[in-house]
Amino acid sequence: MKLSLIIPCYNEEESVPIFHKEAAKVLQGMGCGYEMLFINDGSKDQTLPILRSLAAQDPHVTYLSFSRNFGKEAAMYAGFCNAKGDYVAVMDADMQDPPSLLPEMLEILESGEYDSVATRRATRTGEPPIRSWFAKKFYQLINKISNADIVDGSRDFRLMRREMADAIVSMGEYNRFSKGIFGWIGFRTYWLSYENVERVAGETKWNFWKLFKYAVDGIINFSQAPLSIASWFGIFMTFFSFLMLIFIVARKVMFGDPVDGWASTICIMIFIGGIQLFCLGIMGQYIAKTYMESKHRPHFIISESNKQDIKKVK
Ligand code: UDP
Ligand code: MG
Predict the structure, then answer these.
(1) What is the number of the ligand 1 atom nearest to the C-alpha of 10?
(2) Closest Cα to residue 227, out of 178, 283, 149?
(3) Ligand 2 centre distance from Cα of residue 215 (Å)
(4) Ligand 1 close to Cβ of residue 13 (< 6 A)
(5) Burial letters 37-48, b for 16+ CB under 10 A, else e
(6) Does ligand 1 have an atom closer than 6 angstroms to the CB of 44?
(7) Average pLDDT over residues 184-189
(8) Distance between CA atoms of residues 95 and 233, nearest Å
(9) How far is C-alpha 70 from the geometric centre of its chain's CA atoms?
(10) N or C: which end of the chain has fewer CB atoms below 10 A?
(11) What is the pLDDT of residue 258?
(12) CA dist., res. 314 & res. 308, Å (int)
């Protein structure tokens, strides 16, 4: 039995050695075969040289180094494409996903009742209230309008069976939103809550604006509901204009044609123009995604690794 850990790393020179040491300790204690797949996502610091020397010391370490920064989603995908274990886990390099949880997670999987063990943070303490509020609304909304089951506070930290990892590899879409992909493929998932841990070193790569864009991407990738907004606006405006028509004709017949109403005309024009641009923008977002998908560009390009038998592009 073999366990694969997928660890995306972007500028994690301080965290990687700490992670490697801690994870190796836990995995050796578990007494199973394992591999650690570090994916260097185009780091600009000393992450790559550190990974090279770790790989030279420890035969359990494989590193895949991207030709540039492709993002965490691409790094995870590269990991899934190259993981060989019977069980596969995704973990952050910054120790926010504690390796000490692995034995418990494996035990749950081996009991045979579940296909994956996913983690969620129990609370959002230490986060700005406005961010928590937006996060909560986002999860409510996306669960309403998409058929992927996306759990509030869920992390990417998961341990899963081979079958589930294969299903993820088969989801070859270019615009990847892992929380949605995990939910969409189904399988029986056990949810494990734990207290949020601060990262050991370095800085988070997320700010509010990036998170907001991430949320919008998630919605567009897993729901067609925004598109129907345009139809609903259209139906509403048609109905409304019909009422207005009756009103204006009736007024003309009863009171003649007083020349006024410039202000109301302008207001209506601006209002309708705004709605049209808004709906066009939504459509544009979907077309842009379709455009990117239709190019069939690779998700990642690996320029260096310590192993030969790896998928270098996919
Ligand atoms: N990461 C990555 N590519 C990126 C950004 C982040 O591989 O472009 C990795 C990063 O090294 C870390 C994980 O993704 O292992 C999570 O990143 P971070 O800790 O910044 O996110 P947070 O935990 O704050 O959500
Ligand atoms: Mg982190």
Answers:
(1) 11
(2) 283
(3) 17
(4) no
(5) bbbbbbbeeebb
(6) no
(7) 90
(8) 47
(9) 13
(10) N
(11) 67
(12) 16
